[in-house]
Amino acid sequence: MHLSSMIPELLSALPLTLAIMFVALIAGFMLALVTTALRVRRIPGISQLADLYVSYARSVPVVLQLFVAFYGLPLITGLFGVDDFLSATTASMVGLSFYHGGYLSEVMRPAFLAVERGQHDAADSLGYGFRQKITRIIGPQAVHIALPGYGNAVIYLIHNVALVMYIGAADVMATAHLIMERDYNQYQFGTYLVLAVIYSLLCLIAWLVVRFFERRHGKYVSKTAPAKIKFGSL
User: Which of 37, 42, 62, 80 counts the highest number of beta carbons within 10 A?
Assistant: First the structure.
């Protein structure tokens, strides 16, 4: 197969790759928010479970987490009489969401703790509840600190999406291997080169988006710097 006819076939699998990535991004982000809140507030028993989850997500290889999701979750759903519920695509989304949520929680928690203690005291002195304190004072400052780490987490997620082929999801990487097998591995270099370009472009777009928010949020923080000092001096 000529390279020009291979590229459209690879791009036809790109929507599924992007769907898995975006679901993992959104679900993982929400999971990281909840996990970080539980870890920060140190609720007995529950916070320890959140710590255990983060340790699992960071310590276990991602491909193994995908296998756990693909083979383990059907056993759980089978207990409720639900069979054949999990496809390879769904398992990919679940496994990567759990991985991304745990990894991202370890980006959010240090960012939250890096905010000056005086900012917390100022919010408490104003009578803010936990939700108000996070959304109005601590959150904006923590976001600015966490953005570079968040960008790295997104890029790592894009890299790890390529592993879903091992549980049978028909993403770009799996499609490339099918093409090479069909053509008796005649165009391995060209196929892998096209894959490298695709993943590089995805990472570049992610980096540019995060960089845009870094600059925009940096201007916001600089404009609100006097208010921050005022809160810290209360």
Answer: 62
